[in-house]
Amino acid sequence: MSLSLQNPISSDDIRTVSDLKEGKVFLITGPGRSEGDTAKIVLKGEYLGGTGALKAKFGATVARQIDRQATAKTLTPAERTAVETFCSDHEEVCQYYAGAGINTPAYSGKHREAVQALASGIKNPGNVWVKMEAVSLNGLDKAILARAEGDKTALRSFADTLRAPQGLEKLGRIIAADAFNGNFDRICPDAWDTPEGHEFEFGKAAEGGNKGTAFIFKMNLKTFRNLGNITVVATDPSAQRFEASMLDYLDPFTYLGDIHAPIKDGEDTMMQRYVLRTLADKNLRKKYAKDVIEDFEKILNPRKSRFSLRTKLGSSAVSRLELGMIEGCRLIKEKFEAKFPVPRSVGLTERLNLLAEVR
Questions:
Q1: Edge-to-edge strand order for the sheet containing 241-245?
Q2: Phi and psi at residue 337, in whole multiples of 5°?
Q3: 198 band by pLDDT with thresholds 50, 70 and 90
Q4: Predicted confidence (pLDDT) per residue in 39-89, tens digit
Q5: Cα–Cα distance, 241 to 171 (Å, whole number)
Q6: Mean pLDDT, all residues of the chain
Q7: What order do you get walking across the sheet with 25-31 strand by strand?
Q8: Cα(13)–Cα(251) distance, integer angstroms
Q9: Which residues contact 76 (CB under 8 A, 6 or more apart)?
Q10: Burial 191-230 (b: 16+ CB within 10 A, else e)
Q11: DSSP-derived 3-state class of residue 288
């Protein structure tokens, strides 16, 4: 059977494992649909707390409305067992080759370490594991670092993507989805609890003093919490076309991801305001959209004079982003009203009422 999101994973489907992110995100390869083809999917494991399964379920429902390419499917118990079996079988082969003094790249070094890391994570009962499409993406964190070293290509793709038709609107819909999901780990209003924001520093001096120093700049950002989760993905890699992505929509630290739990319970636990309240307040929503665009403009044009009127995202950027926020809330409201007819839980009723106020 081919490796895909639609087919259940079996131990025989897995050929190679690569560790993409600190033992939490893995690229899996296996047989494709046609003979000789190779398919790729991504496995991600994260501790999401006691309501992790619910957060993953509701988050996926929202993702299907806003960004289907980012939708993650929770692994079934049978799939987790299949991954464990592959890891166990792989380690047995590694030990056999090591004992025989045979150095085989597929069963040693980083490949063996990746499978061992996956085995350790998949056995942890507290982790929720999901599978996702493997996509070509640019993260804002890496794009900025590349810019600091003189390569503006990735950062320009961000500007081009957001300026394009439906670019900022798509980002606005993602912001609405994060607000509903209780995801604070991407972009959120007053992300750093200070009016001036948080100071980020990008670039570093080369070894040996000032000679050869890389481009260095500092900036205060008000709404960006996790630059690595602000991403664009390739919709057509050959044509270098990208769009904003909702990948990483599960916040491991949120207490507002269970849509049936009262909002105030989560707010009191986190000591943080539910972002959907900001979107429901027209004045606060406009300020939020303005702050997000200002953060992007600082990153896209860090040397811009404060007196300059030039923009990277266009004069209508704020209104376009806000329009996307409103549209995203409408799509989510329609989905959950249809999915959960009355009577509804207290938490869902509160959320639907807030969504209705976003107009």
A1: 137-139, 231-236, 241-245
A2: -65, -40
A3: confident
A4: 999 999 988 877 788 888 999 999 999 998 898 999 999 999 999 999 999
A5: 15
A6: 90
A7: 16-21, 25-31, 38-47, 127-133, 73-74
A8: 29
A9: 8
A10: bbeeeebeebebbeeeeeeeeeeeeeeebebbbbbbbebb
A11: helix
